Amino acid sequence: MKRKPVIIGVTGGSGSGKTSVTKSICDKFSDKTILVIEQDYYYKDQSHLPFEERLKTNYDHPLAFDNDLLIEHLHDLLDNKSINKPVYDYKLHTRSNKTIFVEPKDVIIIEGILILDDQRLLNLMDIKVFVDTDPDLRMIRRLRRDIKERGRSLDSVIEQYLTEVRPSHLQFIEPTKRYADIIIPEGGENHVAIDLMASKIENILSKKHENNK
Ligand SMILES: Nc1ncnc2c1ncn2[C@@H]1O[C@H](COP(=O)(O)OP(=O)(O)O)[C@@H](O)[C@H]1O
Ligand SMILES: Nc1ccn([C@@H]2O[C@H](COP(=O)(O)O)[C@@H](O)[C@H]2O)c(=O)n1
């Protein structure tokens, strides 16, 4: 019988370097080994709402996410079933019509700001990582990225940061650090931490293969 995939959670504030850390870890393995599931792709579908209404959503609040669907998909992957992963459009603030057909892999990394805030998600994770980066650096990185890649203006990024991102970070995200097994300062450029994570994953995989013999 095929063994269940291992689930690793990678969390941290917006702009902390979650995506960069996840990519650096994935780059050390073949494409067949690690599947990445982004919690952002599981923001609630808002296609029924006019664009102006979508702008009013607080995207840093736990209620913005469709964790039920995320959990259903993780259970499917744990049962070695494929899923149709949603695709999210940050410019339109809703899911796209497209989905991506993905098959389970030995290791699943679930990456997102609020993955440790839901007990059901916590229960599914074998390893929990918190990427810990100072707020000023996170804000600068977010500012650059959101203007370049997410179709935002300088003023809108600052306004959203002050009214939603910062308060929600302090209320919901920062407290989840206590559930992490590993805290990685600074994120994507922390090569020591990334190498340690890669060694741990290699160790898990070799044990899995031993048990499969
Ligand atoms: N160590 C770093 N130094 C400079 N820029 C970085 C660093 N890590 C990430 N970035 C940049 O900051 C932005 C946010 O990083 P990202 O990994 O997407 O964070 P998150 O997924 O936590 O929001 C991206 O544009 C990324 O290229
Ligand atoms: N329509 C949306 C959806 C999300 N956001 C912001 O994205 C952040 C999470 O993504 P990271 O890659 O930065 O972790 C979150 O802080 C939301 O504010 C958005 O601006 N618009």
Automatic annotation (TrEMBL):
It is found in: Cytoplasm. Its EC number is 2.7.1.48. NCBIfam families: PRK05480.1 (NF004018), udk (TIGR00235). Keywords: ATP-binding, Cytoplasm, Kinase, Nucleotide-binding, Transferase. Its main location: cytoplasm. This is Uridine kinase. HAMAP family: Uridine_kinase. Belongs to the uridine kinase family. ATP binds at residues 12-19. GO terms for molecular function: uridine kinase activity. It catalyses: cytidine + ATP = CMP + ADP + H(+); uridine + ATP = UMP + ADP + H(+). Pfam families: PRK.
